[in-house]
């Protein structure tokens, strides 16, 4: 697997905005996959493709998950930070503004085998390719195909409100925490009704639905890293493996085993 070009030693050291090409791609070598990249932004839009493992990307008020064979799209100028699982293999695609019809907001998209191979092929080419050459024609096809990529609802709304952030931080640290909405309200010195309204107004979801979505995000990340279904069910505090599988299947339409078999 090729390394970053031009001697770049870290994903954080690469500045995509110095290139005028419509799109450039970089395959990240295994040893350069950092567990976290600090908040940053750039003029170009960025597509982070997960080849193996999982990537999570945090933008204002939301956390986006990228399971294998998916990608997260981050529009240009959007501050973001990313984390990857230890076994992750990723590829970056940077796209000039207006070079393709892409979503105006951050989103997770499913990547077809054709788009995946086009991105990987582009990653093998020189970054400063000619605007009328073979690589430029390949990029035109890639961007046309990419604009049709289906959007997946694999994100978790996270409010900057201190009370919501405290709940989120607690649940990420201990996903099996089963503190009820009433108990959280008492802990946060507010009424149950007020806290329920706050969660709904800031995340767009009820407390139960929001916590389930958080569980789904954590489950996908752990499963992509190779954890067993039984282990993930225990981590999330489910009474049985079947209860966890039921939740997963209701959210994504397939059992965990079927879901990841499809991705592979």
Automatic annotation (TrEMBL):
Q: Which UniProt keywords apply?
A: DNA-binding, Transcription, Transcription regulation
Q: Name one Pfam family in it.
A: AraC_binding
Q: Which InterPro entries match?
A: AraC-bd, Homeodomain-like_sf, HTH_AraC, RmlC-like_jellyroll, RmlC_Cupin_sf
The positions making up the signal sequence are: none
| All copies of domain HTH araC/xylS-type, residue ranges | 165-262
What SMART domains does the entry give? HTH_ARAC
Identify the domain of life: Bacteria
**Entry annotated with the keyword S-adenosyl-L-methionine:** no
Q: Which PANTHER family match?
A: HTH-TYPE TRANSCRIPTIONAL REGULATOR NIMR (PTHR11019:SF199)
Q: Any idea what this protein is called?
A: Helix-turn-helix transcriptional regulator
């Amino acid at each position: 697997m090729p390394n970053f070009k031009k001697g770049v030693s870290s994903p954080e050291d690469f500045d995509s905005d110095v290139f005028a090409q419509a799109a450039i791609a970089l395959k990240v070598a295994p040893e350069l996959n950092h567990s976290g990249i600090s908040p940053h932004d750039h003029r170009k839009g960025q597509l982070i493709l997960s080849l193996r493992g999982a990537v999570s990307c945090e933008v204002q008020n939301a956390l986006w998950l990228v399971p294998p064979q998916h990608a997260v799209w981050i529009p240009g100028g959007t501050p973001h930070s990313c984390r990857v699982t230890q076994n992750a293999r990723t590829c970056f695609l940077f796209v000039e503004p207006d070079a393709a019809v892409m979503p105006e907001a951050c989103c997770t998209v499913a990547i077809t085998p054709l788009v995946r191979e086009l991105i990987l092929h582009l990653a093998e080419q020189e970054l400063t390719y000619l605007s009328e050459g073979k690589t430029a024609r390949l990029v035109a096809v890639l961007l046309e195909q990419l604009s049709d990529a289906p959007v997946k609802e694999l994100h978790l709304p996270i409010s900057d409100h201190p009370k919501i952030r405290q709940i989120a931080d607690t649940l990420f640290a201990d996903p099996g925490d089963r503190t009820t909405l009433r108990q959280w309200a008492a802990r946060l010195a507010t009424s149950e009704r007020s806290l329920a309204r706050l969660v709904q107004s800031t995340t767009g979801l009820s407390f139960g639905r929001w916590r389930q979505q958080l569980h789904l995000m954590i489950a996908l990340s752990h499963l992509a890293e190779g954890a067993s279904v039984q282990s993930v069910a225990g981590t999330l505090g489910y009474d049985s493996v079947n209860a966890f599988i039921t939740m997963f299947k209701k959210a994504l339409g397939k059992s965990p085993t079927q879901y990841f078999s499809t991705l592979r």
